[in-house]
Amino acid sequence: MIRGNKALSDIELEEALAKQSLDRGMFWRLWPLLRPVRKFVMGAILIEILLVVTIFFRPWLVRVVIDHGLLPDPQGGYHLVWSVLGWATFGLGLTWSLRFLLAGVGQYLSGSAAIQVINDLRIQIFRHVQALSVGYFDRTKAGRITARADSDVNTLEPLLIQGPPEFLSTILRSVVAGIMLWHISPLLFASVAGVIPLLLLATIIFKRISQKNWAVVAENRSRFTAHLVETVAGVRLIKQGGRELDNLNVYRGLLRNFNQALIRGNLRSSWFAPFTAVLTTTAMAILLLVGARGMALGVITMGQVAASMFYIFIFLGPLQELNDLFERYANGTASAQRIFLLLDTKPDVNDAERILPLAEVRGDVEFQQVHFRYQAKGRSVIESLSLKVPAGQVLAIVGPTGHGKSTLVQLLTRFYDVNEGAVTIDGVDVRHIRQTDLRRHVGVVLQDNVLFSGSILDNLRLAAPESSDDQLIAAARALGVDEVLEKLPHGYHTQVGSLGSALSHGQRQLVCLVRAYVADPAILVLDEATSAVDVLTERRIQRALRTLCEGRTAIIIAHRLTTIRDADQIAVIQHGQVVELDNHQQLLAQDGIYASLYRAYERNAHGVSIVPLTTPALASV
Predict the structure, then answer these.
(1) Residues ≥6 apart with Cβ < 8 Å to 119
(2) Suppose 12 and one of 8, 343, 448, 575 were both cysteines; which one would form an S-S bond, judging by CB atoms 3.0 to 4.6 Å apart?
(3) Are 469 and 492 in contact (CB under 8 A)?
(4) Regarding beta strands 420-425 and 365-372, do their DSSP bridges make them parallel or antiparallel, or are they unpaired?
């Protein structure tokens, strides 16, 4: 099985899985999941054994009734032995009652085990997903992760819980029925034994076909599920662009591929049930012929033939049930393989074996000859970049889109690790700082910050779980944003909706700024925090930022250049390198890239067209 592969994307890994046969070793990895519920599983297996016992009482009782309850009458007809008939009727009723009772107990045990196993597996997946590095989520569609944690886990449940007892029951019924047939008459057993090799061969072929079919079906199901999740997440963009029809056609195409895979799988495996039915019917016909001849010779009784008919059903019936069991096995193991693909994925960023303490942070930040690329064979995003931010100072970073500004944030917070060089805080390489400690001291406010379902206070409390409502409200007032938040329909108790959809972009930004203030980090990073908001909201954000940045090291990435004029330093990033570094006035005096960008921004802000890129100072931007 593919494990811990960082080179391939998640999509490439799943496509590889869909083309290969299922790993037998992977199947045995499922068994540890049953360890916490082994008592329930053993109880369910014991119930299945008792159910098998009740099944074999019935043919024996039928044989007793025919051979001992219906005696030939010398005057013609049959003489009824009521005592035998009475006890046989009571025995049949008792076996059915026991079967009803045992089946109920078995369902309870299986259901209890299933709930616990699935719950534990979901928690294990959730914990692992949260532990993965950001790079994994950049490479993987959210729908694929959702499919593994939801539909794949649901598919796995019948295999884990119901599979072992049912498989044991199938084997027991076939073996015991064969023994009973042999006990009644070796001749009767020999008459039907010829179909066994054919059934076993058909079962082996069917098992191999089903495994490959369900791996392909599972992959196609994951694709249309992923598209559905992404559609829900990006519904505003789809509607704004009028892409509903195109998006629907994409979904139809994914569904068509899924349906075609499902139909091909069904066609390839649909022969098993009728084939086994033909073999069973043939075996019964042979048994009747042999039984009739034995009765004519007086070596077999009518009761034995009747009981044998029951036993032939019990003997060959479970072999037919293997059709359903192997379908469940193939479907479940395909889902298990995809789940273990997720669980075997290793984080790209890990804590070092030697962790240095970071109790108090002054806030000195330095990038030392940093090189970085997102893909091993991709282009360099950051190249030989060196930059130092003294504690308590404000550094603004500007530059063209896609030249590495936001990547610096990713490296500082260790969402990614540098390929060469180092990023340090107070002289300590961030790779030697525990990730939880690092992110506690480095606060980040992004352009598109995420709010979780709940109230505004619930979202603020994420930064300081022990804070009271009064403390959180006081923080909002300290930043001067209380006038906006208190005017919401329910004030601080207003529900923000999924991902903050009930609030405007500016309102979400204000909530995120308060959340960062409550967290009280020593280093603050603002990535386009004032973009895409109106002028009035921008002014509120600017006032809040001045308060928020007091006494902290601040790194501000901005396109609105008027918001960074007061920064201690301004770094111009181009092609992953620092090409200019100074304060606002000095950079204007140098009349370089920053000066050209600033003049173009001012003209655009006053309704004048931006200076064409052919302007010498901007031609290289």
Answers:
(1) none
(2) 8
(3) yes
(4) antiparallel
pLDDT digit string, tens, across residues 187-237: 777 777 777 777 777 777 766 666 667 667 777 777 777 777 777 666 656
- Rounded Cα distance between 508 and 284, Å, is 74
- Please, are residues 576 and 380 in contact by the beta-carbon 8 Å criterion? yes
Highest average pLDDT, of 135-149, 195-209, 380-394, comes from 380-394
Q: Which two tokens stand for residue 581?
A: 């570094």
Q: What is the DSSP string of 527-587?
A: ESTTTTS-HHHHHHHHHHHHHHHTTSEEEEE-S-GGGGTT-SEEEEEETTEEEEEE-HHHH
**372 forms bridges with which residues in the sheet?**
382
DSSP string, 293-312: HHHHHTSS-HHHHHHHHHHH
Q: Which helix (H) or strand (E) holds 73?
A: none
Interval 324-361: pLDDT, tens: 676 677 777 777 888 888 888 888 888 888 888 777 88
What does 353-411 look like in DSSP terms, one character per residue? SSPPP-SS----EEEEEEEE-SSTTS--SEEEEEEEE-TT-EEEEE--TTSSHHHHHHH
**Which whole number is the average pLDDT over 31-57?**
81
- Whole-angstrom Cα distance, residue 72 to residue 445? 95
Integer Cα distance of 53 and 173 in angstroms: 9
**What backbone phi and psi angles, to 5 degrees, belong to 619?**
-60, -30
Please name each of the domains of the chain with its CATH number: 10-343 (1.20.1560.10), 365-605 (3.40.50.300)
Q: Which residues in 216-225 are b (16+ Cβ under 10 Å) and which e?
A: bbbbbbbbbb
Question: Is 131's pLDDT higher than 50?
Answer: yes
> CA-to-CA distance for 318 and 325, rounded, in angstroms?
10
Residue 609 has pLDDT above 90, yes or no: no
How many angstroms separate the Cα of 141 from the Cα of each of 10, 238, 474?
8, 17, 39
Classify 80 as helix, strand or coil: strand
Q: What is the CA radius of gyration of the chain?
A: 36
Measured distance between the N- and C-terminal CA atoms of the chain, rounded to whole angstroms: 47
Among residues 284, 291, 286, the alpha carbon closest in space to that of 311 is found at 284
Give the separation between CA 57 and CA 245, rounded to whole angstroms: 63
Separation between Cα atoms, residue 309 and residue 5, nearest integer Å: 55
Compute the CA torsion angle 399, 400, 402, 407 (nearest 10 deg).
Answer: 10
3-state secondary structure of 442: strand
Q: Give the integer Cα–Cα distance in Å for 58 and 598.
A: 93
Between 273-287, 372-386, 471-485, the lowest mean confidence (pLDDT) is in 273-287
Q: Residue 27: pLDDT band by 50, 70, 90 thresholds? A: low
DSSP 214: H
Q: What are phi and psi of 69, to 5 degrees?
A: -100, -15
The model's confidence at residue 323, banded by pLDDT at 50, 70 and 90, is low
Retrieve residue 573's tokens: 């990033």
Amino acid letter, residue 376: A
